[in-house]
Amino acid sequence: MYPRDEMIKTAGTDTGAAEKSTTKQQDAEADVPAGNRCAARVLYHEAEALQALAEKIFSDRNFSDAVDLIVNIEGRVIVTGMGKSGHIARKIAATMASTGTPAFFVHPGEASHGDMGMIVRGDVVLALSNSGESRELGDLIQYTRRFAIPLIGLTSRPSSTLGGSADLALLLPELPEACPNGLAPTTSTTMALALGDALAVALLERRGFSADDFQIYHPGGKLGQQLMRVSEIMHGGTDVPLVDMNTTLPETFTVMSEKGFGAVGLTDADGKLAGIITDGDIRRHISADLLTKTAAEIMTQKPKTVLPDTLVGEAMAVMNDVKGRFRRITCLFVVDGDGRPVGILHLHDCLKAGFS
How is domain 60-209 classified at the architecture level of CATH? Predict the structure, then answer.
């Protein structure tokens, strides 16, 4: 419902009040550029269409059957469509591929000239056409019928060539386009795109696709960065500055200097992290007899630590959470579930990985 219609509706049955509200809304709209009013009209129109689609798909058995079909195939989902439907099909294929469902786009025109060979038994074809009568889909539909390749049709007309030929038809509500001429694909493509997203997410949930899986398919960009784990950028093995807690301070300082992290971890008899010594600890304990002490005597006990599978962003939050002028953390020891050190993470490592 458009803003102006909503104003009229909420005015109640009082004719005078309705007229006043309408006049007030008209006066307000007079200051709104025509383009803005058009944009709002289109968005409300398409939002209503999505609501209708949601209500329709909620009880659509074909949708759940389509999920079952795709989950159980051995091959890939071949998504196809012509014109604007083709653009939507490309996006659906990309979304599926990035969320655990192997999929790619095949242009129906190119399919008729050799690309049909990309589609083999074990695959399933998802074809998009609002009218269901796109001529370019004809050869591809016949190919799926000849070689018994499952065909899912996404269309608004069940009796169309695509709707009638498909093994499963995902039907869009037959609603007018947002275009004032009723011709440019607008509402129909919005619904098709949303239904493709719904199918991809339903498949994602059915497969139990996790954040870890997502990171595998999104190693680059902001998404990959957000899902990066400490284990991916930490220093491990012999790079980790570690000494026994009873080591003398001169030996401790030597290890600390060689490793170059500005800190050293101290382990107890069980190999667990008992404490750390940082540059700040040394400055705070400077005295004439400093070099006669053991590491345990000046260490900071119960230091902040993280696990290897901690998100880097969370590790940085731990570094930033410590308060106090002399307690700024620039590195964290990484420990296993038993508290044994397995690595060290420095702030510079996080910055190099793109975190800030």
Answer: 3-Layer(aba) Sandwich (3.40)
